[in-house]
Design goal:
With 326 residues, the chain is of the alpha+beta class. 38% of the residues lie in helices and 23% in strands. It contains nine helices and 16 strands. The protein has a six-stranded mixed sheet. A four-stranded antiparallel sheet has the order 2-5-10-11. A four-stranded antiparallel sheet has the order 13-14-12-15. The structure holds ligand DP6.
């Protein structure tokens, strides 16, 4: 029997960066994201002789396989199943380029949680699957839900920490324009980057102390659909996160020259009266949030910034779900 699930990446407007507990993958700060539409991870799972993982048709071993197996083990244990867990072949495909800097681990683990829950008939429900996905990759906990989604910070004892929906995709007709500034993959992944930041950045405590208030302002602006109120905290969240990472040892510089040029271009557009704000994840691409009415103008202006290779547009989308039952 084969089960297939689909999930989409999400982009954080209030960033998660830093872990309170590494083993249990508990975030040190609250985050709020928007799940995207149009870009999809499709994951098929079926019983097999041994556990295996293929990503975009390529068999993977080492850490990627270990992370997938760890999730399957957790799910089986969480459901209170006795006996040996059935071994599974996992076959996952992304229809979007990894180099676009759209966290593929978020959609990957969200899709895997839903697919495995169906294969094992564990019926854990969305909230528990979110907590399980969060343990594999915290941002994945958010992709279980559609639209605008929050993930609280946890204390060191947090066992079950799921994300929760704040508002559905239909709540606010926004667009997210990704300015792709390089085709290469990032050098230091989010997990390693934030562990290094937590352990070595002298600015880390400042970030952890500031993040809850920034998160609260983002949340309030989202609920009120107030774009002008969203701009300040969204940009502050991204810039404070990056400032903290810059100060790690060795410093984490995820940006390239074009990243800075796009930031300047967004601020210029705003000075000219257009509604737009930026956010940046653990890579050099810039993600620009704008009301649907200004999407075309933003795309055109950003495409003209030297160094921008192309732009990708997305809108708020749905949470992870089962695709096909065979
Ligand atoms: C910059 O969720 O990929 O995208 O929990 O270690 O797997 P792990 O990290 P991950 O980190 C995402 C970091 C970010 C900000 C965000 O999505 O909130």
């Amino acid at each position: 029997m084969k089960r297939v699930a689909v999930a989409h990446p999400n982009i954080a407007l209030a960033k998660y960066w830093g872990k309170r507990d590494q083993g249990r993958n508990v975030p040190a700060v609250p985050s709020l994201s928007v799940t995207l539409d149009g870009m999809t991870t499709t994951t098929a799972i079926e019983e097999a002789e041994a556990d295996s993982l293929a990503i975009n048709g390529v068999l993977r071993t080492g850490r990627p396989l270990e992370r997938a197996v760890a999730m399957l083990d957790t799910l089986w244990r969480e459901a209170g199943r006795l006996g040996q867990r059935p071994r599974a072949a996992v076959d996952s495909h992304n229809d979007f380029p990894t180099a676009a800097g759209l966290a593929s681990s978020a959609s990957a683990f969200a899709a895997l949680a839903v697919a495995a829950d169906a294969l094992f008939a564990t019926q854990l429900g969305r909230e528990r699957l979110s907590a399980i996905a969060r343990r594999s990759s915290a941002s994945a906990g958010r992709s279980l839900f559609g639209g605008f989604v929050e993930l609280p910070a946890g204390d060191a004892f947090a066992v079950d920490l799921p994300a929760a929906p704040v508002a559905p995709a239909s709540h606010w007709d926004l667009r997210l324009v990704v300015a792709v500034t390089t085709e290469g993959e990032k050098e230091v992944g989010s997990t390693d980057g934030m562990v290094r930041t937590t352990e070595t950045s002298p600015l880390y405590d400042g970030w952890v102390n500031a993040a809850p208030a920034i998160f609260a302002r983002v949340r309030e602006a989202v609920l009120a659909r107030d774009f002008d109120a969203l701009v300040g905290p969204v940009e502050q969240s991204a810039l404070t996160m990056h400032a903290t990472a810059f100060a790690a040892d060795p410093g984490l510089v995820y940006w390239n020259g074009t990243t800075v040029e796009v930031i300047r271009a967004v601020r210029k557009l705003r000075a000219e009266g257009l509604r737009a704000c930026f956010t940046i994840d653990a890579g050099p691409h810039v993600k620009i949030l704008t009301p649907t009415a200004s999407e075309a103008s933003v795309r055109e202006a950003i495409s003209r910034v030297p160094g921008v290779l192309r732009t990708i547009s997305a809108r708020p989308g749905e949470g992870a779900r089962l695709a096909v039952e065979e």
